[in-house]
Amino acid sequence: MEDKKRAWLYCRVANPGGVINALEFQERQLQEYCAKNNIDIIGVTKYQGSGLQISDALRNTVLPKAEQGEIDILLCTRTDRIGRNTEQVFDFIKKINELGVSVCDMHGEFDCFMKYWQSIEDNGFEQSMDEDQGMTMQ
Questions:
Q1: Residue whose C-alpha is closest to residue 9's, from 111, 35, 17
Q2: Which domain holds residue 74?
Q3: pLDDT at 114 (0 to 100)
Q4: What is the Cα Rg of the chain in Å?
Q5: 112 part of a folded domain
Q6: What is the pLDDT of residues 1-19, one digit of tens each?
């Protein structure tokens, strides 16, 4: 029998209007996702802020848990909840991946996001990313 995965939930909203309801809604969605997927919830971080920088709240809660081997997954409703500065998000995710923690969202978008940025890191910005979809960074 496979061990249950251990998740830290991260909820973030940018707009202070209706923050409590929006944060609670995200948390409830993540809790339901964990229940359906047999994932233990180790903790939750809820943050109100723009997402232009990776929040100290995220760094100060998730990194120590990752370093101590207490979590397997950082789970958010969407990848952009982690932040909107793509380079910072990629660096943060790489760091916690190196600690054995996966970053997941509820919609399966994360795998595409990481493959895209790993390809950029490996090939440079001028490399065509996905010719079938016409995505090119030049």
A1: 35
A2: 5-107
A3: 54
A4: 16
A5: no
A6: 568 999 999 999 987 766 6
Q: Is residue 115 part of a domain?
A: no
Number of domains in the chain: 1
**Angle at CA of residue 17, ends 106 and 90, nearest 5°:** 40
26-64 core/surface letters (b: 16 or more CB in 10 A; e: else): bbeebbebbeeeebebeebbbbbeebeebbeebeebbee
**Is residue 65 situated within a structural domain?**
yes
Among the residues of the chain, which ranges form H helices? 19-36, 56-67, 86-98, 109-123
> Between 86-98 and 109-123, two packed helices, what is the crossing angle to 10 degrees?
100
In a domain, 51, yes or no: yes
- CATH number of the domain encompassing residue 77: 3.40.50.1390
- pLDDT tens readout for residues 50-64: 888 888 888 899 999
Q: What sign for the dihedral angle of Cα 81, 82, 88, 94?
A: negative
- The CA distance from 128 to 23, in Å, is 37
pTM of structure: 0.76
In angstroms, how far apart are the furthest CA atoms of the chain? 48
